[in-house]
Amino acid sequence: MEENNKLAGRYQIIEPLSKGAFGQTFLAADNHLPGNPVCVVKLLSPIINDPEIFQTAARLFNLEAETLYKLGNHDQIPSLYAHFKQKEEFYLVEEYIEGHTLKNELTRGKKLSESYVIKLLRDTLEVLGFVHQNKVIHRDIKPANLIRRKHDGKIILIDFGAVKNFSNAAVTIYGKPETISIGSAGYIPDEQQKGKPRFSSDIYALGIICLQALSGLFPLELPKNDQGEYCCAKLPDIKPVTSGLAEIIDKMVLANYKMRYQTANEALQALEQLLNGGNSSSTKIEPISGFLGWILLMGAIKNNVPLVPTLQQLINSLKYVNSSNKKVLEKASAFALVKAQQDIAQEYRREIGGLFPSINKISPFISQQKREEIAWVNDKIEQLKYQESLEKINSEMTDCFNSILTMGDSVNEIFSKRDKLIQSLLSGDEPLLYIDLLRKEKGGLLHLVCFYFAEKIKSTENLRELLSDLFFNTSLSVENFTNSLTQSQLDLQQLKQKLLQDLPTIAFSTQSNTTKKQ
Predict the structure, then answer these.
(1) Structural domains of the chain sorted by starting position, each given as residue range(s) with its CATH number in brackets
(2) pTM for the full predicted model
(3) CA atoms of 453 and 460, how far apart (whole Å)
(4) Distance CA 156, CA 94 (A)
(5) Each residue of 39-71: pLDDT tens digit?
(6) Which positions are annotated as active-site residues?
(7) Residues 7/86, Cβ–Cβ less than 8 Å
């Protein structure tokens, strides 16, 4: 490729991205489209200067391009824009994915949590299942070929191996498999090293990545048990891993390919059963209550972070919270909710002059209505004390408020959901003054829920660690999130301005609750 030339008359090379034994990858601008959007250009050259090899390579290149075009219909696979030959060199033009590879996250000595691994597994198995359904074996699953997309944190699978097909052509014709390496050391199982990859070979590679994430060790450093198998139990000084997840990972990395999960969808089904407590009929879990949804919104909106993508990443991360961490979140939000209601009830009792119940019972100056109000609030306080001891949110308080984190909603729809959340606590016999106190902007229920959740963060180490995992790869930190919750009033204009920064096309109707998708 000559410098400064446009490829196919339209792709202007900007800078090189990487270089390998079989070609180079460049960042390029597409000069035929408005705004000259960037794309990725891969230069592929047959490694042997022989007419027969060249003809075989060209045929395999076209076949590979067709496969990439078909696979690129998936959201987690880069789209193929073009493939062509110019001056005896082959080119692929693909979608540019803004983000970073998992090599940046899986560094030596860095031990990541179970929730990180679950999210990584779920994301990667979903796209790998699509690949396997299309009868394609990736054969090079490794951190460098997994990109975490910047705008939503999703895992994108790259490098579908036109280069590896060229390698196969050389192996077939010259019969020198020792000169060509298919896959990456440490991530390829025995059958792939022998030139007989299976779908389960991809599963093995992904399992090795999970062990790497948990242990902070590189693949060739991972220990084996007495049977010569990799397993979670042999990893030194890792963070706690539930037995169910360990069983899944251990099965993924078995030496005998027949004993592993045979496809990505089979492994994904096992993971979903684990996340749903053995119930495979559900494809996802929603481990948060509406109150936690509100807390996450408030913790993000007070920070100088891109609100929409940050909340989208949080939604995605919350899907993979295991049952024990789910309980941590439930207890924290239950604590915050009950303490907030207790404060409101105490304030209501002060407002009606009910702080001295023994005097109120005999005072001739207390009306029957006032006595009933005092009796009501005293009963309410006793109920809340009992709820606090349970450390649990009643099921009727958790109905479908998660969608407050779906930032395609209009602003007034978000405020409507805020009112519905408060309404979900009311049984119908509450005095009007008590309801007014609940709905106050400052010192009201949702303001206090955020405040007490912040207090729980400060006093609970495993909650801080869990939130740190949830905030991974976002602009939020536990500290700035906690600080934001202590000043959590939400104002209509403030929310409009914040969302306009992130999503100019969002609907801001104040007359209807219609929504507009991104």
Answers:
(1) 6-95 (3.30.200.20), 100-142+183-275 (1.10.510.10), 290-502 (no CATH)
(2) 0.63
(3) 10
(4) 13
(5) 999 887 656 667 776 676 666 667 767 778 888
(6) 140
(7) yes
